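Lab channel / #folding
Pinned by the channel admin:
"Please post every new chain as: sequence first, then the structure tokens as a reply. Keep commentary short and put observations after the output so the thread stays searchable."

First post following the new format, from NK:
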Amino acid sequence: METRETVFRRNNNIMTLVFKDKNYVRLISNVHGKELDATGRPIALRDYNLWARGVDLSNQMVANYHHDHKSIKWYKVLALSFLETSIANAYILYKHRNPFTTKKHLNFREDLVNELLQDYITSRNVELQIQPSQRIIANMHHIDKREQRHCVICSTTNQRKTSIFYCIECDENVCIVDCFYKLHTNLRVYSRNKIRNI
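Reply from TO:
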């Protein structure tokens, strides 16, 4: 193609064009035809440059803090892109409502995360204070013997450990030396990543 040359194709109301300037410019439109302006440029390209500034700005804002979410499922990528666009739009609305703010996009995102997590953190702290785990109540657990089973604290896939001792109240087999104490003093007992219990 020569410089300032344009190629059009139309299918029903969808028009595609390729315009050769310094580089190739490709456009798809359902409201424009193959009309050219006085300089030989397509009207569709002129209108895009005139009205699409907001779209370009939003895409740039999303790209600045975009995390490449790799997934085989296409709908996960689509949902995450909707979420990223929603955050960018929320920041644009925030700046519109607060024209003299100096808050940057990154600070807005950090504040948004803190606000979304605040209710959970507060409720979790209240739950830990008001309703402590029943296995952490002191002097309320008793040891007995039964058939050997894997220790709930230290037995892992690579290193199996069994014990005939168990806590009657918790109904969990544990090693009598350290694991019984850890079961009833640790705030959290990990069932999969048991190396964190040790």
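NK: The longest helix spans residues 105-130.
TO: also worth noting, The mean pLDDT is 83.
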